[in-house]
Write a structure and sequence with these properties.
The chain is mainly α. Helix content is 71%, strand content 10%. It is built from two helices and two strands; from the N terminus they run αββα. The chain has helices at residues 3-18, 33-60; strands at 20-22, 26-28. The protein has a two-stranded antiparallel ribbon. α1 runs antiparallel to α2 (33-60). It is elongated and about 45 Å long.
C-alpha cells in the first residue's frame, strides 16, 4: 500500500478512537457531529481511493 493511504487510514482510525478530527483545527464529535463525520468519512475515502490501484493489482494477481 502507498504510504499516503496508510497515513489517511491512520487518521481515520485515530479520529474514530479519540472522537476528534483535524481539519483547520480540531473538530470534536460531541460539539459538531456533522463536520466530524464528514471529515472522518473523508479520511476513509481518501485512504481507500489512494490504495485502490494496489488493491486491484493484488486481487488480479499481478
Amino acid at each position: 500500500m502507498d504510504c499516503f493511504s496508510v497515513l489517511f487510514l491512520s487518521f481515520f482510525a485515530i479520529s474514530l478512537v479519540t472522537g476528534t478530527a483535524y481539519h483547520r483545527g480540531t473538530i470534536r464529535r460531541d460539539e459538531n457531529p456533522t463536520a466530524y463525520w464528514v471529515t472522518t468519512i473523508g479520511y476513509l475515502l481518501i485512504g481507500l481511493l489512494i490504495a485502490f490501484p494496489t488493491i486491484m493489482r493484488k486481487l488480479r494477481g499481478h
